């Protein structure tokens, strides 16, 4: 098991146990004390946990992880409906990319199909870390706490060699048909995915058409489908097929 997978599983365990000890995690993952110490140190460096004598507890100043279940319950009906439309594209055995996005996270929550998922999202990994019919691959690298994703040169190299059946991608902005993001690294990964996926599906509320973010990953026309909640304000010559959730 890779370190990133252990870290995601530790954060999931913290949801129910509220604290983890060195001894517990050594036995749980069947690894050495030094390995667990390095894992705990990395989680602390990322601001996700606080070290205690012989273990870790959630950092209360980071409400997203301690309140993870509450966050899922707070998803609006709009997001759930968009995710449900996206789930209709999934078929057994597909190779999929799940983006860092609250809409894609909602899709991950609904996932019941035996697919293989690659993601750079910590929250997606936590959601999909149970014993389910799907196979999960968490892409590693430096952790970006604001939008909770990993990125590294190795991540880009791995993605550039994979041909995905489906890519489910979110957006920070969609003004004038330009798909934009808050982080340059995240936008770059999207550019790679748009080249590597057979079917590209953008999940975005129509309100994103009134917003723009600093970094562009390309045009709406590079996507096959846009799943949204109401008729979007797109350029008249946009080629993407629009699906409006019910």
TrEMBL record:
Keywords from the named record: DNA-binding, Transcription, Transcription regulation
Xref: Pfam families: DeoRC, HTH_DeoR
UniProt keyword annotation of Ribonucleoprotein present: no
Domain HTH deoR-type: 3-58
Species annotation: Aerococcus sanguinicola
GO MF: DNA binding; DNA-binding transcription factor activity
Keyword Transcription assigned: yes
Protein name in UniProt: DeoR family transcriptional regulator
Domain of life of the organism encoding this protein: Bacteria
């Amino acid at each position: 098991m890779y370190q990133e997978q252990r870290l995601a599983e530790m954060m999931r365990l913290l949801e129910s146990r509220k604290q983890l000890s060195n001894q517990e995690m050594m036995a749980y993952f069947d690894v050495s004390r030094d390995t667990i110490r390095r894992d705990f140190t990395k989680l602390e460096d990322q601001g996700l946990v606080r070290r205690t004598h012989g273990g870790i507890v959630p950092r209360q100043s980071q409400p997203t992880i301690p309140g993870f279940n509450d966050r899922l319950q707070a998803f609006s009906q709009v997001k759930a409906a968009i995710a449900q439309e996206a789930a209709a594209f999934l078929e057994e055995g597909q190779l999929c990319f799940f983006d860092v996005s609250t809409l894609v996270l909602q899709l991950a929550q609904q996932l019941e199909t035996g697919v293989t998922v690659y993601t750079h999202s910590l929250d997606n990994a936590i959601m999909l870390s149970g014993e389910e019919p799907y196979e999960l691959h968490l892409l590693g690298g430096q952790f970006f706490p604001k939008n909770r994703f990993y990125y590294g040169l190795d991540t880009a190299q791995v993605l550039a060699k994979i041909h995905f059946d489906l890519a489910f991608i979110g957006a920070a902005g969609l003004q004038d048909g330009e798909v934009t993001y808050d982080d340059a690294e995240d936008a770059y990964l999207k550019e790679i995915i748009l080249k590597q996926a057979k079917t590209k599906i953008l999940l975005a509320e129509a309100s994103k058409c009134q917003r723009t973010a600093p970094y562009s990953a390309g045009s709406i026309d590079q996507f096959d489908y846009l799943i949204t909640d109401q008729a979007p304000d797109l350029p008249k010559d946009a080629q993407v097929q629009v699906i409006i959730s019910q």
